[in-house]
Design a protein that fits this description.
There is one protein chain. The chain has helices at residues 19-30, 34-45, 180-183, 185-204, 216-229, and strands at residues 52-62, 65-75, 79-89, 97-107, 113-119, 134-140, 145-151, 165-171, 174-179. By secondary structure, it is of the alpha+beta class. The strands form three sheets. A four-stranded antiparallel beta sheet has the order 1-2-3-4. A three-stranded antiparallel beta sheet has the order 5-6-9. It has a two-stranded antiparallel ribbon with strand order 7-8. Helix 1 (19-30) packs antiparallel against helix 2 (34-45). The protein is globular and about 60 Å long. Residues 5-14 and 206-236 have low confidence and may be disordered.
């Protein structure tokens, strides 16, 4: 069983740490209720060994409040364990807090796609040694789809005719955006390494027809609908 040790065990050299040690160290660095998160993740693993992991802390502003939440992805031999923890302040003084926790265990064989989107700065001067400035990791397993809609346009800035709506369909269950400016270059590289490991685990197995989220006529219908909706551009 993978044990997520307290920070006292994370003083060993990085090269000698077990995956559980490294995950514990990553939770300590995130600094978001690390003991609570470690216990929740260990319970969600249910005795499975950690093959690879990714810890992503997000911070956003909600009017006068600063909100943070952490997402932990742990890949085992047969499962992707997704843990998300958010907190909420119940009083003005911040003395009364509550943590909201959700976990999901997804069989690797049910993962339909692993999508990586990269952002590079100054591509006209790109060199092989240039780091990725931003990475977005999208993972789909349940067939959930996001539909982004917006007014369609003919491209004429003077035209005020009604051209209906346009949009795109994206399959996703979880999306994580990691940027060098907000999270550091190492965090971007860690996310890239985790995605490669997950992609290798997902593609190494053979999915049966029943396991594939979309196949045959269903895939063709979605492709046709997506093509119709994507004929314009949604200007944000």
């Amino acid at each position: 069983m993978t044990s997520l040790p307290p920070s006292a065990r994370n003083d060993r050299p990085a090269g000698t740490r077990s995956p559980g040690d490294r995950l514990g160290a990553a939770l300590e660095r995130a600094g978001f209720y690390p003991t609570l998160v470690a216990d929740v993740v260990e319970d969600a693993l249910d005795g499975r060994e950690d093959r690879a992991h990714l810890v992503h802390l997000e911070t956003h502003f909600d009017r006068a409040e600063v909100r943070r939440h952490v997402t932990v992805l742990v890949l085992t031999d047969d499962m992707l364990v997704v843990t998300h923890i958010d907190d909420q302040q119940l009083d003005d003084a911040g003395e009364q807090m509550v943590a909201q926790v959700s976990t999901e265990s997804v069989p690797v064989s049910q993962i339909g796609s692993v999508v990586l989107s990269y952002v590079y700065a100054q591509p006209q001067h790109y060199k092989a040694s240039d780091p990725v400035r931003e990475l977005t990791l999208s993972i789909a397993w349940s067939g959930a789809q996001r539909l982004d809609m917006g007014p369609a346009s003919c491209g004429d800035p003077q035209c005020d005719a009604d051209h209906g709506y346009t949009g795109t369909i994206a399959r996703e269950d979880i999306v994580l955006r990691i940027s060098a400016e907000a999270d550091g270059l190492q965090a971007v590289q860690d996310a890239k390494t985790f995605a490669r490991t997950l992609r290798a685990a997902n593609t190494s197995g053979s999915l049966s027809a029943a396991d594939r989220p979309l196949h045959g006529e269903a895939r063709q219908r979605l492709a046709t609908l997506g093509g119709r909706l994507a004929r314009g551009h949604h200007q944000r």
